[in-house]
């Protein structure tokens, strides 16, 4: 099948050009699923100590505002759900699109946040909050608006596909999705930048066990050095994985810096 048969044709100024088709984006839908899973993981970590408070799991919705509010937490909630709203509208494209897509994305994001906050009632290290629900929804709204605005250019006009074909190999989709999980995993708070929470601690313990050592035998400086080494290894693996999928025309340094 010829390329022109896949698109509508229109005339403009005496020229014939291909009009954008109403195609969907499998990559956007896969990214949405991956981000939703990662957001669930980060919101419910450490996934232990489950218990019931003996009250309605939805009692937090009508509870007073939290006594202690920090701008950092509010901003983090908005930023965490902004990609969710954007990916929702991109995944919905082309049906629905525009305002209907924004409405559906906000509704799905709000329900998703409500479920997350409800489950947090059963974790001792988490506090369900109606303010978190509100800021999460605000982030979804902002992301949905951005997604609806950029969807035609990114999907209908094929700019994502064009950049992907220009810079990466034909079968690089799964690799890009895996690499994208690395920066998203940074949402879990950790003592070191790019530390991925407690993941690197487990990695350090495994490496030390291979050499017959234990973390408990390290002093503070030795443990910090081991933590830096494990974090650097994680950064190197993410950057090398991204570079492995690029072709010669790709701006490798700029893309790797963008990843970082």
Furnish the topology, listing elements before pairings:
Elements (H helix, E strand, L loop, with lengths): L7 E5 L2 E5 L6 H19 L26 H22 L6 H22 L9 H27 L2 H9 L5 H12 L14 H12 L9 H25 L7 H8 L1
Antiparallel strand pairs: 1-2
Helix pairs in contact: 1-2, 1-6, 2-3, 2-4, 3-4, 6-8, 7-8
Structure commentary:
The chain is mainly alpha-helical and about 260 residues long. Helices cover about 60% and strands about 5% of the residues. The protein is built from nine helices and two strands; from the N terminus they run ββααααααααα. It has a two-stranded antiparallel sheet. Strand 1 (about 10) and strand 2 (about 15-20) form a beta hairpin. Helix 3 (about 100-120) runs antiparallel to helix 4 and helix 7 crosses helix 8.
Task: Name the descriptors.
260 residues, mainly alpha, two-stranded antiparallel sheet, 9 helices, 2 strands, disordered N terminus
In short:
The chain is mainly α and 260 residues long.
């Amino acid at each position: 099948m010829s390329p022109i048969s896949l698109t509508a044709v229109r005339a403009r100024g005496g020229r014939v050009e291909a009009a954008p088709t109403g195609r969907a984006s499998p990559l956007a839908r896969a990214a949405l699923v991956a981000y939703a899973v990662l957001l669930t993981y980060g919101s419910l970590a450490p996934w232990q100590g489950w218990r019931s408070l003996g009250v309605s799991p939805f009692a937090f919705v009508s509870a007073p505002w939290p006594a202690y509010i920090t701008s950092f937490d509010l901003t983090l909630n908005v930023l965490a759900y902004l990609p969710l709203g954007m990916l929702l509208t991109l995944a919905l494209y082309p049906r629905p699109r525009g305002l209907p897509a924004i409405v559906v994305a906000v509704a799905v994001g709000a329900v998703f946040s409500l479920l997350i906050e409800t489950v947090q009632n059963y974790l001792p290290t988490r506090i369900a909050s109606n303010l978190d629900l509100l800021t999460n929804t605000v982030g979804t709204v902002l992301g949905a608006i951005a997604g609806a605005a950029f969807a035609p250019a990114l999907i209908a006009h094929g700019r994502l596909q064009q950049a992907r074909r220009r810079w990466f190999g034909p079968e690089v989709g799964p690799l890009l999705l895996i690499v994208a999980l690395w920066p998203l995993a940074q949402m879990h708070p950790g003592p070191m930048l790019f530390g991925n929470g407690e993941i690197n601690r487990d990695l350090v313990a495994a490496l030390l066990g291979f050499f017959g050592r234990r973390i408990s035998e390290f002093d503070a400086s030795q443990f910090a050095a081991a933590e830096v080494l494990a974090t650097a290894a994680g950064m190197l693996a993410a950057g090398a994985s991204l570079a492995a999928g690029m072709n010669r025309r790709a701006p490798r340094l700029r893309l790797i810096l963008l990843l970082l």
